[in-house]
Write a structure and sequence with these properties.
Keywords: Hydrogen ion transport, Ion transport, Membrane, Transmembrane, Transmembrane helix, Transport
Family: Belongs to the bacterial AtpI family.
Function: A possible function for this protein is to guide the assembly of the membrane sector of the ATPase enzyme complex.
Oligomer: single chain
Number of helices: 3
Pfam families: ATPase_gene1 (PF09527)
Largest sheet: none
Distance between the termini: 73 Å
Shape: rod-shaped
Protein name: ATP synthase protein I
Helix content: over 70%
Strand content: under 5%
């Protein structure tokens, strides 16, 4: 009896609809690549590595430079250089730990 009732017959997928879906998916992928939304995590890891390296080098160079300049003016060579170098290293490691734990400034 159910076979004789009028209703909608299930239609097979039209090849045009399948082709349209494929083209839409390709267009969405191309647009995501073009706008930069399809990037994987490697870019973020690269930026994080560069930030850690900059913190480490910046802390050491900054501390040593300030210590050297103060040593020249005050005549306390090499004590301020060494002291501020170690202080710069400690600050750099503190910043690296802060970066790696996910907290920002």
């Amino acid at each position: 009896m159910a076979e004789r009732e009028p209703g909608l017959d299930p239609l097979a997928e039209d090849a045009r609809l399948i082709s349209l879906d494929e083209r839409l998916a390709r267009a969405k992928t191309d647009e995501a690549i073009r706008t930069g939304e399809a990037q994987d995590g490697s870019e973020a890891s690269y930026r994080l590595g560069n930030r850690v390296l900059a913190e480490l080098i910046g802390g050491m160079v900054g501390g040593a430079l300030v210590g050297w300049v103060l040593d020249r003016f005050l005549g306390t060579s090499p004590w301020l250089l060494l002291g501020l170098l170690f202080l710069g290293i400690a600050a750099a490691f503190r910043n690296i730990i802060r970066i790696s734990s996910g907290r920002s400034k």
